[in-house]
Amino acid sequence: MIPPMIAPTSPQAEPQPNPRRTATPSAPPLLEVSDLTKHFLVGGKAGRGRAGGVKAVDGVSFALDRGETLSLVGESGCGKTTTGKSVLRLIEPTAGSVRLEGEELLGLAPSRMRSHRRDMQIIFQDPYASLNPRLSAAEIVAEPMRNFADPAWRGPGALRDRLAWLFAKVGLRPEAMAKLPGEFSGGQRQRLGIARALALKPKLIVCDEPVSALDVSVQAQVVNLLMDLQAEFGLSYLFVAHDLAVVRHISHRVAVMYLGRIVEIAECERLFTDPQHPYTRMLLSAAPIPAPGARTTRVLPIGDPPSALNPPAGCRFHPRCPMARPICRETAPPLIPHGSATGGAHRVACHLVS
Amino acid sequence: MTVPSPQADQAGRPPLLDIRDLRTHFDTPDGTVRSVDGVSYRLEARETLGIVGESGCGKSVTALSVLRLLPTPPARFAGGEIRFQGTDLLGLSEREMRRIRGNRISMIFQEPMTSLNPVLTVGRQIAEAVTLHQKIGRRQAWQRAVEMLRLVQIADPERRAGEYPHQMSGGMRQRVMIALALACHPDLLIADEPTTALDVTIQAQILELLRDLQAKLGMGIVMITHDLGVVAECCDRVVVMYAGRKVEEASVADLFERPLHPYTRALMASMPSLQGRGGRLAEIPGMVPAPQELGTGCAFAPRCPLATERCRRETPDFTGAATGHGVACFEAAPARHQPVVLHRHAGARP
After folding, report:
1. Interchain CB distance below 8 Å, B171 and A282
2. Residue A155: exposed, middle, or buried by beta-carbon count in 10 A (0-12, 13-18, 19+)?
3. What sequence ranges are listed for the domain ABC transporter (chain B) (predicted)?
């Protein structure tokens, strides 16, 4: 129904508010996202379908290196999942640029896009809803390999060998191949989802809350598996999550999103030990610590996140920010480098942070 | 034997809630499922007891048993007592039970959207709960509803009372649920994963609200959760459950300082820490057994690094209750004298 509103930026166009991360000039990053924007049209006859609609993602830029894990964190509705899916064009972005190994993906014809699909895979949050209940485990994992022919798995013997190898890699027994998804536990289903994502030897995997539906004791198994696979195959993860402890454990860098924009991005350790944006500080202070008496004070944002339908003017966080000044209500702060020691890797969008 | 609570009443009044050897079983076509199999715990007024465990461990079934919200059949109380201020709830008629439910014992659930009526305004739902249990006029009941919304810190409660659940955010709906549960000033509040569906910022607000309301209203709270962080922040004592049984009970400080049961220890070690990017997490091999698959012996034995022949043969009794830190494990005793190697959260955060 809704026509795609692709407006690919011309190659010369520099992303305006968010200057690109300083990458080493020799090797471009695996994934480069600039000014990614996704607006959803809302309301029909009621007359709310005004141009723009919900600005779910509104000018997001970041880069992801080979073998790196970048986490997107934030409250529900901040646009982290939409960003992940827009990168894969599972949701068609409204504007911006997504480059995989230097090649622009937005605006590519479906046939051209298809050749890139095998490099980019996704693991979903809900292992119960993301597997076809009528296919056997082997068929689920084999399906992408049937869709994309490759000498490595051409022919039934080679396909069977690769299936056995994939099942072993994710820690599933060979007997599991004949089972239906309904016969697996949550953790095993997530392993199956990981095997399916790995099948085509991707370079990038978008992990959309991959462990949040799992029991605590099983969560550790899946987190370890993801880290092992990254070490072995040099995978890049775009890790969308809300559990900050898991994020801190698994990430190299972390981007904090608020109402469709990145408000702070930094190397993981730095973000957790020296957060600059007031929202990041509050998000970190809200996470419960499993050590009695460890938390003495806590500063929380005021109220609920506002609707992305009608985001506040200026800095979008200002209505909930205890430190907001007049300028915060008027001008949106750009995402700019903070501190000289980080070489521009730590960026913050806040008027009050120098 | 039940665990003497540190807050035991001096005057010899019965405890607020005293569950003794509760066995809630389900009769299914595939046989009897022993979801809760001999669980005991106590709770005093103004106390918060955390019940921790993974899905299927029986923590929610225990809570639903207290309110007798399980359909019988297939559920069946195969044994035990649930004493609420001295009265055994399992012996009450449905009519008597209805006078307690929502009035003296209330419950809040994980998903506020599915537990609120979508076609009634929230004010009307709260007013209805009040008129059901108290002789009070409509207008007064509405006033009470507005008061309750104010108590749970909803801005502009007069206007909000006239709104429907779908007009509110998840955090606000959970506040409405709490207002609804507390409208009749219950003595006992059972909170079943009250913050699991919420963002961390909202979770922190709701937990703080529950603490404030407890200080104001003095109710006892049973906090069911899978999140040890939530336990550390808002509970006084903790019961750890595994496969329908209580495996450990201690004060919060004791549990985190010296977890005794191998399952508790493994659970703590398997959690990623907020204190640094780590190497591999300590995994617990295998998975939680389905209740119908339980055989003889300790249910954790197949996943336990300390398991012996005896663990696979006999079920360990719950011991050490008198000390205030009890455990159901044959191998846990020596651990008291060993440094707790699995535990990664001993150091306080700077």
Report:
1. no
2. exposed
3. 17-268
